[in-house]
Amino acid sequence: MARGRKRLPAGPREARIESLSHDGRGVARIAGKVTFIDGALPGELVTFRYTGRRRSRDEGSVLEILQAAPERVAPRCDSFGRCGGCSLQHLDPAAQIEAKQRLLLEQLRRIGAVEAQRLLPPLTGPLWGYRHKARLGARFVKGKGRVLVGFRERHSGYIVDMQRCEILHPAIGGRMTELAELVQSLRICRSVPQLEVAVGDGVAALVFRHLEELDPGDRALLEDFGRRTGLHIYLQPGGPDSVHLLWPERSQLGYRLPEFDLELLFLPTDFTQVNEALNRKMVRQALELLDCGPRQRVLDLFCGIGNFSLPLARMAGEVVGVEGDAALVQRARDNARRNGLHNVEFHVADLAQEIDCYSWA
User: Which pTM does this prediction carry?
Assistant: First the structure.
């Protein structure tokens, strides 16, 4: 006989929030038991309802803020609270950085037994429209009678009914309704589960994952959307290797690191940093801290397409980049060749295993 679910406590409860969890939920202790409360911030007094109970912890959702934290701000996005795309829009940006830094230091201390000896000033960038990479869900929702395109809801697999996204690059974030209407116009609209977003310097692309073959009419609709919006359209009928360009005839995604006179090209499904402005600052600071010279050899693990390896090759005598994804390694090699760098080499290896056996280690 199946064991029944524990009945949730009825009615609103009151809690004082002590801290913030890694996923942006308020943490309270009620009768000695940890309770994670969606929508609550440290220092606040709230009423909430229980949404789940487990042996080690409970879960809840805010009903009313009785005493608000001074760092609480009004979320900019209408979908905040439901959407899983971001979790801290209700917290002042400076306080967000402090919270993330505190969580990182706690994790280093608890898991790695590492104590930070010096804290550098945090790197900051644009608050809105900064996200250059994302994966959006698409689904025909029978109850609404239409297709939804967007991020998934927090704690569920449902797609958020959203008209715009404030954190996505404006070329995409302002077109959520258009994207939903486009997918709905396709004959195979119920077989398009996912859209991948990739933005480079001056180019924004969409990859449409489709589980059925597109007929000429569907292809024409996607091509026309690309022409009207300037978005480059890719198709993905199968796995990652099946991604190919539909419109225009040629497409080139890339980003520059001007301080190092570099341009890195990538494909829309490649891993790249989501925040271009922060990435430039991050690369600059990493190289300043390394302060390597022409007599030094540098090993860059999880090198991707060469985001750190290639700038390092401008300074070090020799650079070795290692990555588990063979396609990314090929992209890194191509980027080195395009930028005229001959003192850097790239290798494929499973970095979850010991690396002492490799000649480059």
Answer: 0.92
